[in-house]
């Protein structure tokens, strides 16, 4: 039985990847952070009582800022595959906490890569780095491909670029099977509620049910290549099954503005978006990434990548899911007071 370790298992991608690997028969280990509130809601449905034999999902406390724990874990577990998905992943927030973002997103990757060496796993273990289209940043070439020069526009993008090149460096220096997926934005009903897509579907469905009046937004002109997270995590696994490690762009090759996402969502709910959406400068970034559109030809050719869920279908999946959530919220709000 193969053993995988996932950092960021409680996040959107980590939860879908854990599901996928469990379905493939893996023993899945995940690093979770201690928090004063529960942070495992995305993986609770996968969790089984550890007292029962044959449990395949095992969680460990840890943090990408803690290298000693990382080395200890790798010694103990001897994983076949490591997926480094853990991150302070919010671009806007990275301007507020640049040092922390650099520590976790940039140095966090070094800590794992060094732990792989320290635990003597260079030959046995394969490594996946969650690289990002944010590394392309300022528009220089469209659509963006693996060879498009990077020009990150945020502390998050800079930290991801550092982790990306380290992954390449460990591949070249130590022959580690290390691959980077340069994934463009991917969304789902499990997307964090402060990312733009989920913020929109959550607000529009709440407005529909009278739970909210307004939606405050930043730059509506930014363009993004949005795909479906559940499909994207499959590519992470496929990359680690290749004979040779490499870097791949994973994208849909379609781009849409934030405004189009709003129009599509409110349209599905028969609402006039202009009545509800207001501008708030707080949501602007000091430097913006104006246009992302990825050409995934290499992943298509070598990994068999074919995105099935495109823009309209994605908006529908997220809106329907959030409408159900809003209905439950409305029911609770309407319960008679004791
Ligand atoms: P999320 O923000 O949903 O999840 C991030 C995960 O990282 C959470 O499990 C979080 O734990 C964990 N984490 C945060 N800080 C630390 C830390 N200090 N130590 C250990 N774990 C930590 O991100 P996504 O699932 O959307 O993205 C997964 C990865 O892919 C990230 O690295 C992201 O930067 C990258 N990426 C994402 C894209 C996207 O469109 N979604 C596109 C390209 C790259 P907790 O739950 O406790 O907060
Ligand atoms: P992004 O995603 O920065 O691309 O990073 P996000 O959804 O936060 O923003 C997308 C675009 O929408 C604009 N925008 C707003 N964004 C947010 N969050 N809130 C708003 O109110 C708002 N109004 C307009 C933004 O300016 C931006 O242009 C995501 C993250 O998942 C990263 O971790 C990942 O690496 C990249 O995608 C690829």
UniProtKB/TrEMBL annotation:
Molecular function GO labels: GDP-mannose 4,6-dehydratase activity; NADP+ binding
Species name: Lacunisphaera limnophila
InterPro entries found in the cross-reference section: GDP_Man_deHydtase, NAD(P)-bd_dom, NAD(P)-bd_dom_sf
Residue ranges of coiled coil: none
Gene3D superfamilies, per database record: NAD(P)-binding Rossmann-like Domain (3.40.50.720), UDP-galactose 4-epimerase, domain 1 (3.90.25.10)
Cofactor dependency: NADP(+)
Keyword terms of this UniProt record: Lyase, NADP
Gene Ontology process terms (BP): 'de novo' GDP-L-fucose biosynthetic process
Top-level class of the enzyme under EC nomenclature: lyase
Tagged with keyword Lyase: yes
Residues that, per the record, bind NADP(+): 127
Protein family: Belongs to the NAD(P)-dependent epimerase/dehydratase family. GDP-mannose 4,6-dehydratase subfamily.
Full protein name: GDP-mannose 4,6-dehydratase
Role of this protein: Catalyzes the conversion of GDP-D-mannose to GDP-4-dehydro-6-deoxy-D-mannose.
Lineage: Bacteria, Pseudomonadati, Verrucomicrobiota, Opitutia, Opitutales
NAD(P)-binding domain segment(s): 5-318
EC identifiers of the protein: 4.2.1.47
Catalyzed reactions: GDP-alpha-D-mannose = GDP-4-dehydro-alpha-D-rhamnose + H2O
């Amino acid at each position: 039985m193969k053993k995988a370790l996932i950092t960021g298992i409680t996040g959107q991608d980590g939860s879908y990847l854990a599901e996928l690997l469990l379905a493939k028969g893996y023993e899945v280990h995940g690093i979770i952070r201690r928090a004063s509130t529960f942070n495992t809601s995305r993986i609770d449905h996968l969790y089984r009582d550890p007292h029962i034999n044959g449990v395949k999902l095992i969680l460990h406390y840890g943090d990408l800022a803690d290298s000693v724990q990382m080395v200890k874990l790798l010694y103990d577990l001897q994983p076949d595959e490591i997926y480094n998905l853990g991150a302070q992943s919010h671009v806007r927030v990275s301007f507020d906490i640049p040092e922390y973002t650099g520590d976790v997103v940039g140095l966090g990757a070094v800590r794992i890569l060094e732990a792989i060496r320290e635990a003597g796993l260079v030959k046995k273990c394969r490594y996946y780095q969650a690289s990002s289209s944010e590394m392309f940043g300022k528009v220089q070439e469209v659509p963006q491909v693996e060879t498009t020069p990077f020009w990150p526009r945020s502390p998050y993008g800079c930290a991801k670029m550092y982790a990306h090149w380290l992954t390449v460096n460990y591949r070249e220096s130590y022959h580690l099977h290390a691959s980077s997926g340069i994934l463009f934005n991917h969304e789902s009903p499990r997307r964090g509620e402060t990312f733009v897509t989920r913020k929109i579907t959550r607000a529009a469905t709440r407005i529909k049910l009278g739970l909210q009046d307004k939606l405050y937004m930043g730059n509506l002109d930014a363009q993004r290549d949005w795909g479906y997270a559940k499909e994207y995590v499959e590519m992470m696994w496929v990359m680690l099954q290749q004979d040779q490690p490499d870097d791949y762009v994973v994208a849909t090759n379609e781009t849409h503005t934030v405004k189009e996402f709003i129009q599509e969502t409110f349209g599905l709910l028969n609402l006039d978006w202009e009545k509800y959406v207001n501008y708030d400068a707080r949501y602007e970034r000091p430097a913006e990434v104006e246009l992302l559109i990825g050409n995934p030809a290499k992943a298509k050719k070598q990994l068999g990548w074919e995105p099935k869920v495109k823009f309209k279908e994605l908006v529908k999946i997220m809106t329907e899911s959030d409408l159900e959530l809003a209905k439950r919220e409305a029911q609770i709000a309407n319960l008679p007071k004791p």
